[in-house]
Design brief:
Blueprint: H1 2-20, E1 31-34, H2 40-51, E2 55-60, H3 63-70, E3 78-81, H4 87-101, E4 108-111, H5 127-155, E5 158-162, H6 174-194, E6 200-206, H7 216-229, H8 232-238, H9 240-255, H10 262-273, E7 280-283, H11 285-295, H12 299-307
Parallel strand pairs: 1-2, 1-4, 2-3, 4-5, 5-6, 6-7
């Protein structure tokens, strides 16, 4: 019996390997628009796709970031300045894309732009911290998608939304986790609504990677600022010792983030270039072998695993 089961599993993975390795034809004629290309995943993905011959339209927040990217790519790649929190900037970028793709439409949209900080306990934060992160990670992503949708429908193209492992199981950074749960829901609804138009939607859920978003110094400063601005009764409830232990734990975790960004960008590339893209991709070894299995455990057990080594607040019950 076990031999038959092993054979079935082997056949399944062999079939999936063959099914997923089929590549879309005429990639050199296809346009892909990527947000957040100043650094990190977006920057690397833009360079990867450019090397494969696709026509990359890279959106950067700053001109300096756009210039750095252009200096490392071919003349095919074009850049545009985009602030996903500003409606007029999104509308201008959409018009810019429309002028370039023409009647061919837009083959791929990669919603990669995002922010993480502050990483802190929810009770230490202000409402504006939630608003700032949601405006970039969820509202901006939604508005960019809606503006590009007519072009994507024309090409029967692909939407690739960059979520996170904390969009599957929330464990830290409340506002960031909330935004990524929103990305998951938005992507699921869009995938079902756009199916009949030939537009495919994929979600990439990266684990921990070392990018500007997870820079230890920047995240530590934002954490310290959130703690200093928290109400006195909140600080008394947790205590300075708890804060210092939490800071130390977060710094240690961030310092262990993977530097191999291709584990995530290869997922994005596959979603854009495979004839049969996956619905969800887990980017990184921690995503595949820790967070993904953890998300399927009973909630009580997952809570225990995630909080068993957490320090206790000063006024813990």
């Amino acid at each position: 019996m076990w031999l038959y089961l092993a054979a079935l599993v082997g056949l399944y993975y062999l079939f999936r390997w063959f099914w997923e390795r089929q590549v879309v034809s005429h990639l050199q004629d296809k346009y892909v628009f990527i947000t957040g290309c100043d650094s990190g995943f977006g920057n690397l993905l833009a360079r990867q796709l450019d090397m494969r011959g696709l026509r990359v339209l890279a959106a950067c927040l700053t001109e300096a970031g756009a210039e750095r990217l252009r200096n490392r790519t071919s003349q095919r790649l074009e850049t545009v300045i985009l602030d996903v929190t500003r409606t007029e900037s999104i509308a201008a970028a959409a018009q810019w894309v429309k002028e370039r793709v023409g009647d061919r439409g837009l083959w791929g949209l990669v919603n990669n732009a995002g922010i993480t900080c502050p990483i802190a306990f929810i009770e230490w934060l202000k409402t504006e911290d939630f608003v700032n992160i949601l405006k970039v990670n969820l509202i901006g992503l939604t508005e960019v998608t809606l503006n590009m949708l007519p072009l994507l429908r024309r090409a029967q193209g692909r939407i690739v939304n960059v979520s996170s492992v904390v969009g599957r199981i929330a464990l830290y950074a409340g506002p960031y986790s909330c935004s990524k749960y929103g990305v998951e829901a938005f992507s699921d609804v869009m995938r079902r609504e756009l199916k009949d138009f030939g537009v495919k939607v994929s979600i990439v859920e990266p684990g921990g990677f070392r990018t500007e978003m997870t820079d230890v110094r920047r995240c530590s400063e934002a954490m310290e600022r959130a703690w200093q601005e928290a109400p006195m009764h909140v600080k008394e409830s947790y205590g300075q010792q708890f804060f210092e232990a939490y800071c130390s734990s977060m710094k240690q975790g961030l310092s262990k983030c993977s530097t191999n960004l291709t584990l995530a960008t290869d997922c994005m590339e596959h979603a854009l270039t495979s004839v049969h893209p996956r619905t969800r991709y887990s980017g990184g070894w921690d995503a595949q072998f820790f967070f993904l299995p953890l998300s399927y455990l009973p909630t009580r057990l997952a809570d225990y695993i995630l909080t068993r080594s957490q320090p206790k607040p000063a006024q813990a019950a």
